[in-house]
């Protein structure tokens, strides 16, 4: 049987109709999904819009494929029965995927973050690129693509770094014991006053943390908008260091005092610098 005879036969016509159904189904799925996304983006979150578009696309594709198989002579009852058995088999074989799917529905419903937010999951920090049913895609600051399974997100602590419009930067700093704490506070607060990226409300403040091994430990808190946070975080430490230098405020390094007891002999001291000088002479 040549091609013309096959196409003009009843079986050939059924095959041609099945192919047309699949192609039309694919076209309708793309158009319907695109229209749905465009209409729903005015009322839904981006991740919900994307999810709705995928549901409609794959739903139409499944209907078209089922219709095409029916056109080829497959019984609809048999197809649905086989699909049910296949679904059960896939469900047992992919319990992790099912768990991720359910976790994805919880994430979409709870909305702990949205596309474009920066989140921290464990030691990974990145921008949310996509929220799918099985996983969330992130882009880290060093431009790495990270896929986090939804089940992991449900079980982990998620920190949304950009949920609120402002953030606080905390700088821990130590000054020498001889320094006047009132003067240190004034210097730190002047740094915040003179830096335009520091917000005046909430007000910057300085907290006394305690007496450290080698220093008086303080915490300098300043607020900024989330858009300026990284720039402020990079600049404030340098500005504090320069302000301390100008005010002659010492930032001490760790000291250790060795005590040998009142009855012990003093430690012998040898001046290495003088020996080298005499040798040169």
UniProtKB/TrEMBL annotation:
Residues of the Mechanosensitive ion channel MscS C-terminal domain: 170-251
Keyword Thylakoid tagged: no
Transmembrane segments: 16-36, 48-66, 72-93
Domain Mechanosensitive ion channel MscS residue range list: 97-163
Location within or outside the cell: Cell inner membrane; Cell membrane
Classification via InterPro entries: LSM_dom_sf, MS_channel_1st, MS_channel_C, MscS_archaea/bacteria_type, MscS_beta-dom_sf, MscS_channel_2nd, MscS_channel_C_sf, MscS_channel_TM-2
All copies of domain Mechanosensitive ion channel transmembrane helices 2/3, residue ranges: 56-95
Keywords, comma-separated and alphabetical: Cell inner membrane, Cell membrane, Ion channel, Ion transport, Membrane, Transmembrane, Transmembrane helix, Transport
Subunit details: Homoheptamer.
Function according to Swiss-Prot or TrEMBL: Mechanosensitive channel that participates in the regulation of osmotic pressure changes within the cell, opening in response to stretch forces in the membrane lipid bilayer, without the need for other proteins. Contributes to normal resistance to hypoosmotic shock. Forms an ion channel of 1.0 nanosiemens conductance with a slight preference for anions.
Family: Belongs to the MscS (TC 1.A.23) family.
Protein name, entry field: Small-conductance mechanosensitive channel
Organism per entry: Natronospira proteinivora
């Amino acid at each position: 049987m040549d091609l013309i005879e096959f196409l003009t036969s009843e079986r050939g016509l059924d095959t041609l109709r099945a192919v047309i159904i699949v192609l039309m189904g694919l076209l309708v799925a793309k158009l319907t999904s695109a229209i749905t996304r465009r209409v729903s983006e005015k009322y839904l979150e981006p991740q919900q819009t994307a999810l709705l578009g995928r549901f409609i696309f794959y739903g139409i594709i499944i209907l078209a494929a089922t219709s095409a198989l029916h056109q080829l002579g497959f019984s609809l009852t048999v197809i649905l029965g086989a699909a049910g058995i296949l679904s059960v088999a896939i469900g047992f074989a992919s319990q992790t995927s099912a768990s991720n799917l359910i976790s994805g529905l919880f994430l979409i419903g709870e909305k702990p973050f949205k596309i474009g937010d920066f989140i921290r999951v464990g030691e990974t920090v990145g921008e949310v690129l996509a929220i799918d049913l099985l996983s969330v895609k992130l882009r880290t600051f060093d431009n790495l693509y990270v896929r986090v399974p939804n089940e992991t997100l449900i079980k982990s602590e998620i920190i949304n770094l950009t949920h609120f419009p402002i953030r606080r930067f905390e700088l821990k700093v130590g000054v020498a014991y001889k320094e006047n704490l009132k003067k240190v506070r004034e210097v730190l607060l002047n740094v915040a006053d003179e830096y335009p990226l520091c917000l005046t409300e909430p007000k910057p403040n300085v907290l006394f943390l305690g007496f450290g091994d080698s220093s008086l430990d303080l915490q300098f808190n300043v607020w900024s908008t989330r858009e300026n946070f990284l720039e402020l975080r990079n600049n404030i430490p340098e500005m504090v260091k320069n302000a301390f230098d100008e005010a002659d405020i010492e930032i001490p390094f760790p000291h250790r005092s060795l005590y040998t007891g009142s009855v012990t002999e003093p430690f012998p001291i040898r001046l290495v610098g003088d020996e080298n000088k005499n040798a040169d002479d």
